């Protein structure tokens, strides 16, 4: 384990939030362990976040409680047959049936969303040789670009948008033939992102 990783681990155990500056240094130095701790921190914040009653997240706590006594057939007929987007609802259903706290679902979704953002970030900077100053500036841009209210309370749209972003990156920058699958997955998370598929196809074949 690198010195920066060991330091980040010890500081994270003592206080995750005190470890933020050191973790950021580790991320700039492209430490995967530091990046893991940063993503885990997002998950912890998401786990502890208490939503306002008007937030989408508050509705999902209600959905979770409703699912506890719902059979799979009832859930299937309601969401799979009557809704275009059902992936997040399915996660809450299976969590309710296995007594996994709803907060863990929120934390996992947040961590997946942030992981995708940083996966793309690292893929991009790996193409260039950048010093620590530009590394810090690029991280600041990433942090300022994230809508934290949507990340913590909107949940479903940000979750879907991260897969749209991944699909665009893989399909347009890396020319991967699997990119469209991530866009389709995104529409099953939030149907409103369907509009990005024809735009993607236009950019993919005419650029």
Output the structural class.
mainly alpha
Basic shape: flat
Order of helices and strands: HHHHHHHHHHHH
Distance between the termini: 43 Å
- Beta strands, count: 0
Chain-averaged pLDDT? 85
Total of helices: 12
Question: Which oligomeric form is depicted?
Answer: single chain
Secondary-structure map:
Blueprint: H1 3-14, H2 20-28, H3 32-48, H4 56-67, H5 72-82, H6 87-97, H7 102-125, H8 132-145, H9 148-154, H10 156-173, H11 179-189, H12 196-206
Helix pairs in contact: 1-2, 2-3, 3-7, 4-6, 7-10, 10-11, 10-12
Written account of the structure:
The chain has helices at residues 3-14, 20-28, 32-48, 56-67, 72-82, 87-97, 102-125, 132-145, 148-154, 156-173, 179-189, 196-206. Helix content is 76%, strand content 0%. The protein is mainly alpha-helical. The longest helix has 24 residues, at 102-125.
Task: Name the descriptors.
12 helices, single chain, mainly alpha, 207 residues, 76% helix
The gist of it:
This protein is mostly helical and about 210 residues long. About 75% of the residues lie in helices and about 0% in strands. The protein contains twelve helices and no strands.
